[in-house]
Automatic annotation (TrEMBL):
This is Uncharacterized protein. InterPro entries: C2_dom, C2_domain_sf, SMP_LBD, Synaptotagmin_plant. It comes from Taxus chinensis (Chinese yew). Keywords: Lipid transport, Lipid-binding, Membrane, Transport. Its main location: membrane. It holds the Pfam family C2. It is found in: Membrane. Residues 1-162 form the SMP-LTD domain. The keyword Transport applies.
Length: 299
């Protein structure tokens, strides 16, 4: 029963996260082992009057567990097995609202404080993987993206404990971000012959239907777009706008140029703000990185 429930939940998640030439991901089977996660460093954090927040370190090493996924692409199809799964991080558990009935709260909100450390092994069971190079990397990136976008705060799962309507605890859009993509300059050239053909992906969440894509500017390291987008926002106090510059390719899907992030909490409603942001390989790292260009926005 638990395997079936997790299989259904995983399928719903994968339906929202498809990248590149992957058209669909179908969970064929899910096998659970008997190993439980290890918890440590539990502490109570200060929260609102109607909630209790627990922080807990956890780690889980899955040796017998495995997931088999059928992958449908624009070319050949594949069957992949995912096993040797490892994940560790910091859980955020919110117990709310308070109730008079035992256990004293109506629901549990489950999330992660930050990106977890995770790893897994991907093996091709059926299909010619050489016919579509990079499919394993795309699946790896899709799974990691889904985990981060679904579980890292403010994203969360809400599990009812007592009967009641707890839909208000779910993460849902509370506003819209108006983004004007003006231009980019000094872009790193990823082409051996000629110049890059850049386009931009803009998003707050990496769900497929919420990613905005600009037009492609051919053979340019200083593309000018002057294009506008509206992006839904769920939590302006903790979410970021991500701008990812890509080089459109004919042989493969696209090549990464650089990325920038901007915290939405720095914005004020109905007050446009012009920005030049540096594009880097990994905007989450605190280590100094070589610039891959700059992008001009009005938010």
């Amino acid at each position: 029963a638990m395997s079936y429930l997790l299989k259904e939940k995983l399928q719903l998640v994968l339906d929202d996260y498809k990248m590149g030439f992957v058209e669909s991901l179908s969970v064929k089977s899910l096998v659970l082992g008997g190993r439980s996660p290890h918890f440590g460093g539990v502490r109570v954090l200060e929260g609102n009057d109607d909630e209790v927040i627990l922080e807990a370190m956890f780690s889980l090493q899955c040796e017998k567990e495995e997931v088999v996924i059928n992958v449908k692409t624009s070319g050949p199809d594949f069957t992949l097995r995912i096993n040797d799964i490892y994940i560790s991080g910091t859980l955020k558990l919110v117990f709310k609202p308070f109730k008079e009935e035992l256990p004293g709260f109506g629901a549990i909100i489950v999330s992660l404080f930050e990106d977890p450390d995770m790893g897994f092994n991907i093996k091709v069971l059926g299909g010619d993987v050489k016919a579509l190079p990079g499919v394993d990397n795309i699946i790896d990136n899709t799974i990691r993206t889904a985990v981060l976008d679904v579980l890292v705060w403010p994203n969360r799962y809400v599990y009812p404990v007592l009967p009641g309507d707890y839909s208000y605890l779910e993460l849902r859009p509370v506003g819209v971000l108006d983004v004007s993509l003006i231009e980019a300059t000094n872009l790193m050239n990823t082409d051996v012959l000629g110049k890059s053909d850049p386009f931009a992906l803009l998003f707050v969440r990496l769900k497929t239907e919420r990613i905005k894509r600009s037009s492609t500017k051919k053979n340019s390291l200083h593309p000018v777009w002057n294009e506008g987008f509206f992006i839904e926002v769920d939590d302006p106090y903790s979410q970021y706008l991500t701008i990812r510059l890509m080089d459109e390719e004919t042989v493969k899907n696209a090549e990464f140029i650089g990325e920038a992030k901007y915290p939405l909490k720095e914005l004020k409603p109905h007050e446009p703000k012009g920005l030049w942001l540096d594009l880097v390989y990994n905007p989450k790292t605190s280590a100094p990185e070589k610039s891959r260009g700059e992008v001009h926005l009005v938010l």
